[in-house]
């Protein structure tokens, strides 16, 4: 049975690149925003949703994390990691040079990833933020102004743009993690070898008291459980109230994780498993 897969669109986004690399022959649907894609999974409009989770340069995509925590609690059943290559895209009829470019359009993360290039070569250009790199390419394709977009090769192909300059990102080791969301684990089938496995936890402290975070981390440390990430986010219930997202580099088991959960709950913490899932490193 063909699965319906949703992604942050329009065509030409890095999310679409990740979906194309991970899933073949599926029914794919683009959404304008991350919340729309997550809602579509929750409302059974699609079977699988793929949304950006974290970039190696710019950090966590906070909208994704906050929406999954505060609005729609869907489990993560896989993670896709892809390399990010940003290019300067112009209209196919553009024959000028950089000095003629008046505006640069792209997602805020893409702009930030290319900050040094923009600062050095196009500092005069106005910055216009868009909902995605694909949307930026779409805007440039329909404009007769001297504007450019920052995006990938797929965006250039989808919208008939020319690549004025390749690889303008500031750091070569740039990757983005994408979360694969679904209601049922059996729905997700990615035809690639698993690189590693991970478990993500949501931990809420009972109150802000001295040594609370140290006690939380100690529960993992003495069990020799390796944490690849720990990040605090506001609870949105008042200043100073935070929850923590913790990534553990191992799958959920019936011994270590239940004992960690019991120890933290004894301290007054609330622990929620956001997902235990395989990680796929894809070359695109």
From TrEMBL:
Taxonomic source organism: Virgibacillus oceani
GO MF annotations in UniProt: prephenate dehydratase activity
UniProt site (Essential for prephenate dehydratase activity): 176
Pfam families: PDT
Biological process terms in GO annotation: L-phenylalanine biosynthetic process
Source organism, top-level taxon: Bacteria
Record key words, sorted: Amino-acid biosynthesis, Aromatic amino acid biosynthesis, Lyase, Phenylalanine biosynthesis
E.C. numbers: 4.2.1.51
Prephenate dehydratase domain: residues covered: 4-183
Catalytic activity: prephenate + H(+) = 3-phenylpyruvate + CO2 + H2O
InterPro entries the record matches: ACT-like_dom_sf (IPR045865), ACT_dom (IPR002912), Chor_mutase/pphenate_deHydtase (IPR008242), Preph_deHydtase (IPR001086), Preph_deHydtase_CS (IPR018528)
Name of the protein in its database record: Prephenate dehydratase
Keyword Mitochondrion (UniProt): no
Record-level GO cellular component terms: cytoplasm
Enzyme kind, highest EC tier: lyase
Gene from which the chain derives: pheA
């Amino acid at each position: 049975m063909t699965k319906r897969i949703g992604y942050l669109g329009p065509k030409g986004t890095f999310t679409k690149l990740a979906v194309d690399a991970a899933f073949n022959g599926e029914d794919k649907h683009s959404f304008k925003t991350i919340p729309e894609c997550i809602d579509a999974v929750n409302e059974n409009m699609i079977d699988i949703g793929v949304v950006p989770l974290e970039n190696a340069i710019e950090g966590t995509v906070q909208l994704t994390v906050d929406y999954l925590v505060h609005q729609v609690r869907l489990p993560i059943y896989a993670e896709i990691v892809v390399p990010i290559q940003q290019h300067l895209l112009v209209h196919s009829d553009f024959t000028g040079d950089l000095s003629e470019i008046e505006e640069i359009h792209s997602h805020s993360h893409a702009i930030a990833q290319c900050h040094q290039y923009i600062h050095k070569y196009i500092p005069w250009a106005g910055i216009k933020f868009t909902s995605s790199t694909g949307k930026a390419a779409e805007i440039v394709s329909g404009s007769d102004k001297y504007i450019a977009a920052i995006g990938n090769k797929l965006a250039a192909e989808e919208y008939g743009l020319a690549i004025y300059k390749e690889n303008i990102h500031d750091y070569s080791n740039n990757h983005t993690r994408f979360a694969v969301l679904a209601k049922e684990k059996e729905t997700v089938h990615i035809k690639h070898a698993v690189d590693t496995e991970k478990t993500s936890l949501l931990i809420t402290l009972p109150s802000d008291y001295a040594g609370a975070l140290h006690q939380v981390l100690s529960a993992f440390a003495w069990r020799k459980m390796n944490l690849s990430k720990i990040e605090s986010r506001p609870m949105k219930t008042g200043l100073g109230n935070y929850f923590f997202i913790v990534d553990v580099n191992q799958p959920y088991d019936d011994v270590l994780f239940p004992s960690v959960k019991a120890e933290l709950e004894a301290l007054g913490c609330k622990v929620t498993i956001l997902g235990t899932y395989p990680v796929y490193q894809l070359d695109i």
